[in-house]
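dude i think i finally got it to work??
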Amino acid sequence: MTATQLRERVYATNRRALHEYLILETIEVGVILTGTEIKSVRAGRVNLREAYGRVDRRELWLHNAHISPYDPGSHYNHEPTRTRKLLAHTREIGRLWAKQSESGITLIPLKMYDRRGHVKVELALARGKHTYDKRNAIAERDARREMERAVKRDFN
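look at this
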């Protein structure tokens, strides 16, 4: 395989999720898309900001992911925020269901990308951050940035 076949193309990221949630673990799952959806995704017209995952009847579903209608799609277009089925092994779905049923744990999509011609979603088990956690994260990031600047300044 060539390097271009192995390279992932990221179509959408949920940067806000990293600020709003504490990421406990991540899992890569496939997603079932229709023809016009895949064309919109490859055009980068995806928004994961309000999206979340849910285990329902031993199946994994992606809710509220907005994939814009494909302009040349005419009357064959899809509904932008329809619920989409995610593909994972039965064991993984059972484990996610057990973790999701804990208090305060949710499934959040972090990014949608292409791997070897298949669209994948990186799904994370996450717990919501409190306001003070967010402030601590910002303070740590600022302190790290200041240290990097000081080190860079000293070496120059």
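The mean pLDDT is 85.
im so relieved honestly
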